[in-house]
Amino acid sequence: MRGIESNDTDFLPPDIAFRVSARVEGNALKVRWVIADGYYLYKQKLDVKAESPDLVVSPPQLPPGVVKTDPYLGTQEIYTQQVEAQVPYTRIDAGAHPIQIKVTYQGCAEAGLCYPPITKVVFPNAGTTAAPAPADIPPYPWEGIAIIGGAVGFLLAGLVLRKGRKLDLPA
Amino acid sequence: MNTVGPRFFAAALVVLLGIWAGIRMHSVHNAGQQSVHQEHGVAAPAGRASAPAPQDATASDAIGPRAVIPARLPDFSLKDLAGKATPISTWSGKSLVINFWATWCAPCRREIPLLKGLAAEWAGRDLAVVGIAVDYRDKVKEFADRFKIDYPVLIGDQDALDVAAQFGMDSPAFPFTVFTDGRGEVVALFVGELHRPQVDFILSEVQDLNHGRVQLPEARHLIAEGLAKLAEKQGT
Fold first, then answer.
1. Options 1.10.150.20, 3.40.910.10, 2.130.10.10, 2.60.40.1250; which CATH number does A14-131 get?
2. ipTM computed for the complex
């Protein structure tokens, strides 16, 4: 019980009920949702969009779902257990930015609870999933090199310009 | 040159420190931008990609009120179907069944006939059913017309979510229903789809409370026990 006496629910939080991951495989992104027992996702509510500026993704290709007929919501295709979307992609600037996609999904528990649509930014890679912890994310190395190179160049330029001139410093 | 040298190196050191600080800030900024963004629902990092199971979640993980549920009905106001601001105190003195729902939610839709029946049974008596739709106004209006919802419906988006949070549902899932007694005390909060036996049981306790046959702590305890037994009976 939580605070007052009500029904003691066993409903899972959405991030446990629906686990999303993505990986790069050739010219396609594979986005996978692993769905807890007793939960389902609506096919119609699954979507993948490009988040990084240089990325162009095609609409996700999804396998057929299970047809679920609800007298109050009509006929819908749903997924249980797991589903994987194939998302062909192209990159405009040959990979200067890490791939980021925006994944949207919505689902329910069979026992009678629905979660609002969820949208997450996911970083596909070869091994793991979504969203590394902030501390794990390296800065873009080329940007750091550019900053340092620029600063060193600035210092060298200063030295060259200063050569032969007396520096007028206060006593 | 001898006097300038140390100053120059000091200046260079300051510049290099500045560069280092800039790179650090850049990293932190990037990390902040690249963390998980979630536009709706619970803002939490994605879990591992292993097969989840109900037992993966601890009791504290489960969906439901996390914050302290208020002892009394909070004072709030939302717009009704006609767009008129309606304070919840409009039904002051009545026991309330406040149902949070959304049009995209199948179990919420399934509850509507039950709630309509309840509103009709209690019409003119000391109980009112109030729906709070966390949804787009046009969709709710269309749905309410189509399903002939004849009990009061209030609508909101973030303001309705704020109301849900006042009941401890800071990461709401739908439907959930709050039951209050005639004095405005929150007697029960039911998460998930309601069914007739559960509603009847909770309302019988609310009536006992209203007539002084039971005190609030005991009523809450009895409701918890009764709902657990019903759930066991239904195998949920």
1. 2.60.40.1250
2. 0.72
